[in-house]
Write a structure and sequence with these properties.
By secondary structure, the chain is an alpha+beta fold. A four-stranded antiparallel sheet has the order 1-2-4-3, with helices on both faces. The protein has two domains: 3-168 and 228-237, NADH Oxidase (3-Layer(aba) Sandwich); 171-212, no CATH class. The protein is globular and about 60 Å long. Helix 2 crosses helix 6 (102-125). The protein contains twelve helices and four strands. Helix content is 45%, strand content 12%. GO terms for molecular function: oxidoreductase activity. Pfam families: Nitroreductase. Residues 9-163 form the Nitroreductase domain.
Length: 243
């Protein structure tokens, strides 16, 4: 196995960090590595907010559901889908710009995720730990107000960065047979049942028998309620009308 693949397969979320700070020079290198990710039509539809004010980080930790490591990690980034920059650049050339298309939302969201994952991989290659924070979408308007995000920009997720203070186990993934399908979509119930057994064993070992769960049961809170029902109205208010 080459070292890049080994690094990718060793990912785990880090939620405890040492007091050691990431140098500004390294942080810039990580962002530049992120910029090297693939981007649709070279649009580069993202902006990254480096949140340095302690009070702002503490407020975001609260808005994200009490995730204290947002305030205690070395650096906290908010990755934003940004259609303001490219549409305004196009408009300045004299183009009659059409805004609010669903495809623009998809392009900006995908571009942002690809860029962030490059940052994550680059960070882990330097011995750092990362943790994505989707919880900022619990209160996206409050986060947007706090970070003064303009129209046509929305916060997709945050990322904690720092030097790890713990070494959590690598969480198992679905069998590759469930993910990789040949020529057509095929049923994967059998692989999911096997994976449920794998995850049950993982949780039992990690919790000394205190957590009786598996993958399928852990999905329940995501799908038996309307998860973040405010997001559509929020995105429309941001200018992503999904026309």
């Amino acid at each position: 196995m080459n070292p890049v693949i080994e690094l990718l397969k060793s990912h785990r979320s880090i939620r405890k960090f040492t007091d050691r700070k990431i140098s500004h020079e390294l942080l810039l290198e990580l962002i530049q590595a992120g910029q090297s990710a693939a981007t649709s039509s070279h649009v580069q539809a993202y902006s990254v907010i480096h949140v340095t004010t302690p009070a702002k980080r503490e407020k975001i930790a609260e808005l994200a559901g009490g995730q204290d490591y947002i305030a205690t990690c070395s650096d906290f980034l908010v990755f934003c889908a940004d259609m303001k920059r490219p549409t305004e650049a196009s408009e300045r050339t004299g183009a009659n710009v059409v805004r609010g298309m669903t495809e623009q939302l998809l392009v900006a969201s995908v571009d942002t995720a690809l860029m962030a994952q490059n940052v994550a991989i680059a960070a882990e290659s330097e011995g750092l730990g990362i943790c994505y924070i989707g919880g900022i979408r619990n209160n996206p308007q409050a986060v947007s107000d706090l970070l003064q995000l303009p129209e046509h920009v929305y916060p997709v997720f945050g990322m904690c960065l720092g030097y790890p203070a713990h070494e959590p186990d690598i969480k198992p993934r679905l069998p590759v047979e469930a993910i990789l399908k040949e020529d057509h979509y095929s049923d994967d119930r059998e692989q999911v049942e096997v994976f449920d057994d794998t995850m049950h064993s993982y949780y039992q070992q990690r919790s000394s028998g205190k957590k009786d769960a598996n993958w399928s049961r852990n999905l329940t809170p995501l799908f038996d309620t309307k998860l973040r029902p405010h997001m559509r109205d929020f995105l429309v208010e941001r200018g992503f009308e999904m026309k």
